[in-house]
Design goal:
alpha/beta, Rossmann fold, seven-stranded mixed beta sheet, 6 helices, 37% helix, binds glycinamide ribonucleotide
């Protein structure tokens, strides 16, 4: 099953996916980022579908269309979001049940972009990782896997997020593999 990874950041989840031998055929980024370098070093095709605006004039439909075109061009069958910084729910319409996401909290708690900070601010003692099927409703699709991560005294957003990512780098490739093998969902 051809996998396309969408990423915007440091690409540490992408690295773990590649190390696990997941058959990634293309990495697509919305901005210049380390994830593109990770793809290049691994000899995987990469495309920068650059988001030109972060303001009110951003044309989400046109941008989403560009991403779907790039995925189709590479014959992608399973879309894996690994810290993609642009919300493009319509991709789930083009790939129904075939878009996966990892989220740094125990959904349905703390959806959105600031989940690690919000968990810290709320004073929860446990947060974690959720791997789920992405639907057209953001951070709301069927849950495939979850694992808890303890919030420790003295944690900052960075230290907590790094411990969460350590779990993601194991749980996400494992879950993707099960989807490819047909043992999930
Ligand atoms: C991951 O923690 C992922 O869960 C988060 O971005 C990080 C990407 O890290 N995604 C979201 O917050 C989506 N709402 P990486 O670039 O090191 O893989």
């Amino acid at each position: 099953m051809n996998v396309g990874v969408l990423a915007s950041g440091t690409g540490s989840n992408l690295e773990s996916i590649l190390e696990a031998g997941i058959p990634v055929v293309v990495v697509i980024a919305d901005r210049p980022c380390r994830a593109l370098e990770v793809a290049e070093q691994a000899g995987v095709a990469s495309e920068l579908v650059q988001r030109m605006s972060f303001g009110k004039d951003f044309d989400r439909d046109a941008y989403t269309h560009q991403v779907i075109e790039a995925l189709k061009r590479h014959d992608v069958e399973l879309v894996v979001m690994a810290g993609f910084g642009t919300i493009i729910p319509a991709v789930a319409g083009a790939y129904p049940g075939r878009v996966l996401n990892t989220h740094p909290a125990l959904l349905p708690a703390f959806p959105g972009w600031h989940s690690v900070k919000e968990a810290l601010d709320r004073g929860v003692k446990l947060t974690g990782v959720t791997v789920h099927i992405a639907t057209e409703e953001v951070d709301a699709g069927p849950i495939l896997a979850q694992e808890a991560v303890a919030v420790l005294p003295g944690d900052t957003e960075d230290t907590l997020h790094e411990r969460i990512k350590e779990v993601e780098r194991r749980l996400y490739p494992d879950t993707i593999r099960q989807v490819i093998e047909g043992t999930l969902p």
